[in-house]
Amino acid sequence: MNRFKKISYKKKNRLLLWGGLAVLFLIYKLTFSKTISLYFSCKELDQHMEMAANAPGRIDALEKESARLDRLLGKEQSDNLTQQSLLEVVTAYCQQNNILLKEFPQTLRASEKEYTIETNYFVMEGPFQKLLSLVYRLEQKTKTGKIASVSYSTRTDLRTKERILTATVFIRNIRRASSTAILDKTRERSNEM
Question: What's the rounded Cα separation, in Å, for the pair 48 and 90?
């Protein structure tokens, strides 16, 4: 105790200040740090609870978006349904507008990784306005696929000496292969090795 009395007030204040800081540091480490970490973890859990509460709405929105993308990719319809619906639309339009449908061959298919590209094409004869109107209807209204190309050409009929306009329309659908088909292809590749 004698030593403490011999120390000046300035040094006593410094010791008191450093001692107070040491006590504050210990109090922080022993109590406040745990409280602060629990506060932040509680806040994080509240955010997870909000996300879980909003999950059904988000799931519905994501399912709608997935269905929209499937329609754009053409996944929703089966192979024959796409060609059949396209044939129905084209023949109905051709009958209403006196256009001659010359060719409508089978669907061409090409597979690349997990996607299948289906191309339908058909050839028709008629006036430019009506042919263009059908292309517009297929692209904007019926949406049976994406118009990949339209090729117009003219030829002269030898009997009547008239020029005849023909249009070849290519419609492409991209489908994602089902997960089982992807797994089967993966297994085949691993068996080949």
Answer: 52
- Cβ atoms 145, 86 nearer than 8 A: yes
Q: Beta partners for 117?
A: 110, 174
Q: What is the pLDDT of residues 12-29, one digit of tens each?
A: 888 889 999 999 888 888
Q: How far apart are CA 54 and CA 180, in angstroms?
A: 31
Calculate the dihedral angle through the C-alpha atoms of 70, 75, 76, 81, rounding to the nearest 10 degrees.
Answer: 150
Model confidence, pTM: 0.52
What is residue 13's predicted lDDT score, i.e. its pLDDT? Answer: 87
Radius of gyration from C-alpha coordinates of the chain: 37
Cβ atoms 104, 90 nearer than 8 A: yes
Neighbours of 26 (CB within 10 A): 10
